[in-house]
Amino acid sequence: MSAEEVIEEVAKLCKLFHAKEVILYGSRAKETARERSDIDIAVTGVDDLAEAKQRNLSDSFVLSGTSAKFSITFDLSWKVMKDILVQYYAITGFVAGSPREVLREAYKANLISDESWMEMLKVRNELAHDYDCEIVKKNCHVIVEKYIDLFYAFEDTVKALKMEI
């Protein structure tokens, strides 16, 4: 697939999912990519998850969507943290590390200021095995009332970091 085709496909997906911003990172952004290097992009869309604040949290469709959006947003967040730690802080001892290791290092580097990210990791892991929406029902209010704000705070940190670079 050519670069133009990739851009066209990403643009379609962004329009479909109402993405706010697409950020290219990794070897292609640093212009160190090889012929077979993958394309690393981050898509900001926390607002979609925040929409749950205006929805009926007892509706199974809303619960399912909130669970999926939370998990995706969490996974993108910790992977962006990992890239920032490696690229901008030159912290490489955990490159193949788990989300838990990345969160610990991100906390030490002040990328995140709240240990609630460890709670978020636990919830995300539990949601992977939530086949009847019971786990999301138990955690939906904390996702909506606390975790969304932590995603926004991290987004602000990333934007501030981009300004410094």
UniProtKB/TrEMBL annotation:
InterPro entries per record: HepT (IPR010235), NT_sf (IPR043519)
CDD domains: NT_KNTase_like (cd05403)
NCBIfam families linked to this entry: HI0074
Protein name per UniProt: Antitoxin
Source species taxonomy: Bacteria, Bacillati, Bacillota, Clostridia, Lachnospirales
